[in-house]
Amino acid sequence: MKNVKLLLSVFLFLFISCQKRELPIQKADRGTAITSSFYWGPKYATQTWFKLNGNKIVSQNSRGDWDLEFEAGTGNHVRLNAAKFMFALNTHKQTFAEVKDTSSFNFYNTKQCDRVATLDSSVMGVFENHSPVYIIDLGVDDNNMPLGLKKFQFLENKNASFTFCYANLDGSDSLCRYFSKSDNYNFVQFSFKTNQLQSNIEPQKKDFDLEFTQYTYIFENPYVPYWVCGVLLNRSEVKACKIDDKAYETINLSDTLQHPLTNRPDAIGYDWKKWDFTLARYSYPAFSYIIKDSEGFYFKLRFLTFENDLGQKGYPTFEFQKL
């Protein structure tokens, strides 16, 4: 019996010795917190495209560099430049000859602007074959001066291209343009000033996470379009959620269980700052955000200020860190 026990002990020892040793898993280095800041530009006229991983500004442009944006890839939506306070109206007419003025359509009382939250809220909807004629209010310049009106109509929409025409209301400066689509972008932007697509506005969809911009927010009951400065998500590649019930320092990835991520573009929005009319300065609610970026990394982020050390507005400072 003793010999049997001895042989069994030797066998167990040899078996255990042959097993691969488990090595401890090293926790990935998520790096330290990063604080970033930039100048929004005179009168908040700059649009800034930002990538979290790498802490870099991908590109910047003036909000006046474009007027319309067309959904790329397989999408068909067209949107107004909400940073210019643009409006539009569907006249339900089928030819330019039927649209010569605004009074026939009660334009200034019925025009509408886009809501940034959903694509389906676009005033001009989707580009289609021989669409109705739209009147477009081009918004205002950096000095809040009106930029005028255009009439606009889609003529043809194909899988990889689209054609549209536009003119002044009196029929002058009439042009038709044809463009191809690209799967590399969420949207491509067009300027009535240059009559061209602008290739240097929105970066390719894999190259940015956040857009810092003015945009038109609509307050309901009553309906009031209002200009705000805020942050919009990369519509197709980025998700985020707001955390308002927990200190920033204690936020971790498990908080997404109670706060599901959304790809709604204004998930961050503008209300991370509030103007105190009594004190004539900004205050900053205790809001934090978890963001899943265009590379699949998760970050927590909070805004620290919208002013520089001299109290000048338009200098957002924010802190973020990988989770």
Number of distinct beta strands: 20
| Coarse morphology | globular
Mean of residue pLDDT? Answer: 89
Q: Report, as a whole number of angstroms, the end-to-end distance.
A: 58 Å
What structural class do helix, strand and pairing data support?
Answer: mainly beta
The helix content, as a percent range, equals under 10%
Largest sheet: 5 strands, antiparallel
Order of helices and strands: HEEEEEEHEEEEEEEEEEEEEE
Low-confidence runs of at least 5 consecutive residues: 1-28
Number of domains: 2
Radius of gyration: 27 Å
Strand proportion: 35-45%
- Which strand order do you get reading across the main beta sheet? 1-20-19-18-15
> How many distinct helices?
2
Concise account of the structure shown:
With 323 residues, the protein is mostly beta strands. It has helices at residues 2-18, 107-110, and strands spanning 34-37, 46-51, 56-62, 68-71, 78-80, 87-90, 134-137, 149-157, 161-167, 175-180, 187-191, 196-198, 210-219, 224-233, 239-243, 274-276, 281-283, 288-292, 298-307, 313-322.
Structure keywords:
single chain, mainly beta, 2 domains, five-stranded antiparallel β-sheet, 2 helices, 37% strand, disordered N terminus
Describe this structure in words.
By secondary structure, the chain is mainly beta. It has two domains: 125 residues, no CATH class; 132 residues, no CATH class. Helices cover 7% and strands 37% of the residues. A five-stranded antiparallel sheet has the order 1-20-19-18-15, with no helix packed on it. A five-stranded antiparallel sheet has the order 6-7-8-9-10, with no helix packed on it. A hairpin with a 4-residue loop joins strand 2 and strand 3.
